Amino acid sequence: TTPAAPRHLLSIADLTPAELTTLVRNAHHHKEAIKNGTQEVPHSLRSALAGKTVAMTFSKRSTRTRVSTEGAIAALGGNSMFLGKDDIQLGVNESLYDTARVISSMTAAIVARVGPHSDVADLAKDSSVPVINALSDLYHPLQILADFLTIAETDLPSSTSSLGVEGKKIAWIGDANNVLFDLAIGAAKLGVDIAVATPKGYEIPQDMRRVINDAAKTTPHGGKLFETTEPEEAIKNADILVTDTWVSMGQEEETAKRLAAFKGFQITSELAKRGGAKENWQFMHCLPRHAEEVSDEVFYGDRSVVFREAENRLWAAISALEAFVVNKGRI
Ligand code: CP
Ligand code: NVA
């Protein structure tokens, strides 16, 4: 008999609202237990990947995803094997199919950073072990687990079925990209409204809009998606202002055109005030950050939670590996 196909994490869309909630709550539990020493870390977790290797195939640069994933694998007692684009045959001398078959025959999981999303989807199709998307041109699930931990952790309800984020409003000011897509899907599932301001010509593609709106239907009080080309309009009553780079990896040749198109989209205190953000608004950014998308005053100011958000990548990665690799997708 052929073994059951493994469960993969390619997008937040792969998770039910309850599973997303559990993954974020588990990440919080691991943070408390390991960092703050206030909760027990079960011995079984510390050695859950003992004697096992997790392959990390990265075709693009990474600081946070690499460090957090390697740290998480170490926290679970496993061995991480980082395979950069110049280290293996993939793409140059060997097909994705052959690579997936070979790597998955020797490892417990594959964490992959790719260009086109079809690359990680194809890898998952042919892999006999779980594949976790470490960023594709469409999605960034590990980032979004950390983002909802960041939003929820300061006020997490003790009930196990909620993150306490329902009814909040996120304003995304900038490019409609991979990080936004998974964030919007997560928001929809958790009952968080999200208003997206992009320049004309840089809107969310129609297919993706459908995926986001479908995500809202997976729960009785799904979050709503609003779209505009005016940053001020998106910011009105927002609890959280978020942005990301205007030039994602792989779009470098469009830099001049993009910088011109996004003029006026820099997040500043003045813009937040003009737009009418909530009094206690906070700023988030997945990083790496460039000065054009957010002023230093906001980025390094009191409202910014970006470095806590970055650290939360570690706790989110432990939670994701535990769920998908240790527990084989039973969440
Ligand atoms: N936020 C994020 O994924 O950063 P890296 O590209 O440095 O991994
Ligand atoms: N949108 C960015 C995210 C990097 C973590 C990119 O794809 O380059």
From TrEMBL:
<dbReference type="GO" id="GO:0016597">
    <property type="term" value="F:amino acid binding"/>
</dbReference>
<keyword id="KW-0808">Transferase</keyword>
<dbReference type="GO" id="GO:0004585">
    <property type="term" value="F:ornithine carbamoyltransferase activity"/>
</dbReference>
<dbReference type="GO" id="GO:0042450">
    <property type="term" value="P:L-arginine biosynthetic process via ornithine"/>
</dbReference>
<feature type="domain" description="Aspartate/ornithine carbamoyltransferase Asp/Orn-binding">
    <location>
        <begin position="166"/>
        <end position="321"/>
    </location>
</feature>
<dbReference type="GO" id="GO:0019240">
    <property type="term" value="P:citrulline biosynthetic process"/>
</dbReference>
<comment type="subunit">
    <text>Homotrimer.</text>
</comment>
<dbReference type="InterPro" id="IPR006131">
    <property type="entry name" value="Asp_carbamoyltransf_Asp/Orn-bd"/>
</dbReference>
<dbReference type="GO" id="GO:0005739">
    <property type="term" value="C:mitochondrion"/>
</dbReference>
<keyword id="KW-0028">Amino-acid biosynthesis</keyword>
<dbReference type="InterPro" id="IPR036901">
    <property type="entry name" value="Asp/Orn_carbamoylTrfase_sf"/>
</dbReference>
<protein>
    <recommendedName>
        <fullName>Ornithine carbamoyltransferase, mitochondrial</fullName>
        <ecNumber>2.1.3.3</ecNumber>
    </recommendedName>
</protein>
<dbReference type="InterPro" id="IPR006130">
    <property type="entry name" value="Asp/Orn_carbamoylTrfase"/>
</dbReference>
<dbReference type="InterPro" id="IPR002292">
    <property type="entry name" value="Orn/put_carbamltrans"/>
</dbReference>
<comment type="similarity">
    <text>Belongs to the aspartate/ornithine carbamoyltransferase superfamily. OTCase family.</text>
</comment>
<keyword id="KW-0055">Arginine biosynthesis</keyword>
<comment type="pathway">
    <text>Amino-acid biosynthesis; L-arginine biosynthesis; L-arginine from L-ornithine and carbamoyl phosphate: step 1/3.</text>
</comment>
<dbReference type="Pfam" id="PF02729">
    <property type="entry name" value="OTCace_N"/>
</dbReference>
<dbReference type="InterPro" id="IPR006132">
    <property type="entry name" value="Asp/Orn_carbamoyltranf_P-bd"/>
</dbReference>
<feature type="domain" description="Aspartate/ornithine carbamoyltransferase carbamoyl-P binding">
    <location>
        <begin position="7"/>
        <end position="153"/>
    </location>
</feature>
<dbReference type="Pfam" id="PF00185">
    <property type="entry name" value="OTCace"/>
</dbReference>
